[in-house]
Design brief:
Number of domains: 1
CATH architecture: 3-Layer(aba) Sandwich
Number of helices: 9
Order of helices and strands: EHEHEHEHHEEEHEHEHH
CATH class: Alpha Beta
Length: 189
């Protein structure tokens, strides 16, 4: 069974609380913004590799909110040290989803180095995450989501995905002052 990114995101939507902060990067961000536009979507595009670090900062600053990081495998590979920092910070409100399609999708789908050998769930456990899981089918992912999001973090769900439907890449919005202001206003309400 193949897990499509947009199907995984659709499965996640009902579990997102109104006050959850969602940090997403690149194609996962574009898909998420199309499927679930909301004011507390933090747009981290333009900072490839930084979603997990931005998520950590937001989790530390907002301990009463869940922070959901929607990361790409190529992005995370550019900042693997963030996993050790996240684990060391012992944040209990961070849930790290890695969408592993084994390519740098928005940059022409160039393959990742050692693409088929990288196991992000194992890396997260080795870094010190409280728990980590690996999914390649929608049914088990959907079934486990409630327990995953109710447990203490930091936790990782590594999803072995294929792209799914192509959603518009609205770079103008994600790099705009409007996007940053919308998020900041929602965060400060």
């Amino acid at each position: 069974m193949t897990l499509r990114r947009d199907d995984a995101l659709r499965a996640l939507i009902p579990h997102i609380r109104e006050d959850d902060i969602v940090v997403a990067v690149y194609q996962t961000n574009f898909d998420w913004m199309a499927l679930n536009p909301r004011d507390l979507n933090y747009v981290a595009v333009g900072a490839m590799g930084q979603a997990s670090s931005h998520g950590l900062g937001l989790a530390i600053a907002n301990p009463d909110r869940r922070v959901i990081v929607l990361d790409g495998d190529g992005s995370l590979l550019m900042n693997l040290g963030s996993m050790v920092t996240i684990a060391g910070a012992q944040v209990t409100n961070l849930y790290h989803f890695v969408f592993a399609n084994r390519v740098y999708e928005v940059n022409g789908s160039h393959p990742l180095p050692s693409a088929e050998r990288v196991d992000f769930s194992w890396m997260a456990l080795a870094a010190g995450y409280k728990d980590a899981f690996r999914y390649s089918d929608l049914d088990s992912f959907t079934e486990d989501l409630p327990a995953f999001l109710s447990g203490d973090g930091p936790q990782m769900a590594a999803l072995e995905i294929v792209a799914g439907e192509a959603y518009p890449r609205d770079y103008a919005y994600i790099h705009s002052a409007e996007a940053r202001k919308t998020f900041a206003d929602a965060l400060n309400r």
